[in-house]
Amino acid sequence: MERGSLFIWCRIGPWGQGLLSVRHLGQALVLGLPCRLVYATLVWSLATADPLRGGALMAVFGIGTLPMLLALGSVADELIALTRRPRVR
Distances from the Cα of 41 to the Cαs of 2, 21, 33, 62, 64, in angstroms? Predict the structure, then answer.
């Protein structure tokens, strides 16, 4: 499994490194592509065939995922701060 992923990473790694230093909107959009859950919810909202219900569905999805995203960001900040401490290193 590791060898297989190494083969894939060697192919896409350099392409991704070029995106990490975002210089224009196109790079930012490619780097920030949403996850599959967002796409699935988007298809679901389109299937309602009603702009208000579809928009409400997307809004509820966004509100529902917001707490986890905020928590994940806070935990990531704490982990970064922890790894910068000399004692941890």
Answer: 32, 30, 14, 10, 12
From the number of C-beta atoms within 10 Å of its C-beta (0-12, 13-18, 19+), residue 27 rates as middle
For residue 3, the enclosing domain spans 1-33
Tally of domains in the chain: 2
pLDDT in tens, 43-88: 899 999 999 999 999 999 999 999 998 998 899 889 988 989 888 8
What pLDDT sits at residue 50? 94
CA-CA-CA-CA torsion for 63, 68, 73, 77, nearest 10 degrees?
Answer: 150
Tokens of 28: 């930012």
Which tokens in the block code for residue 21?
């230093």
Considering only CA atoms, give the Rg of the chain.
19
